[in-house]
Design a protein that fits this description.
By secondary structure, the chain is of the alpha+beta class. It contains four helices and four strands. The protein has one domain.
């Protein structure tokens, strides 16, 4: 059964839409792997959506995205969107809280992985301040 952990009404800005299918696919396929990957600055790709960090981009793609630009999201149907890591963390925490409601046995692991990612975001923010 496919569960929707992220919803359109969660969006801070309608331009952020690609984060919805990305998080829903991640939650339904392997959310632990997804959070672990992003906490190590590694993107993930799924059937409909994907994400990548600046460090993973091809040289020509890096030209249009600032080095501290956060995370780039794509879907098959929408243009790419660049979210700051703070905004991405906001959406990730929302999806994680809903995931934990359905899978309470994974709360400790999810919380630990989220904490790791949050620390990386804070460190990057301090470095670019």
């Amino acid at each position: 059964m496919y569960i929707f952990y992220a919803h359109d009404n969660d969006l801070l800005d309608s331009k952020h839409f690609p984060v919805i299918p990305l998080l829903n696919e991640a939650c339904n396929l392997n959310f632990l792997d997804f959070i672990d990957a992003v906490s190590h600055d590694t993107g993930r790709g799924y059937n409909y959506s994907s994400c990548s960090f600046w460090e993973d981009l091809a040289e020509e793609e890096k030209q249009s995205i600032p080095a501290n630009g956060g995370i780039v999201l794509w879907t098959m149907d929408d243009p790419e969107v660049i979210l700051s890591l703070d905004i991405f963390l906001y959406y990730l925490k929302l999806a994680a809280s809903r995931f934990i409601e359905v899978h309470p046995d994974m709360e400790k692991t999810i919380t630990s992985l989220l904490s790791s990612f949050e620390q990386k975001v804070e460190a990057k923010n301090m470095h670019h301040a």
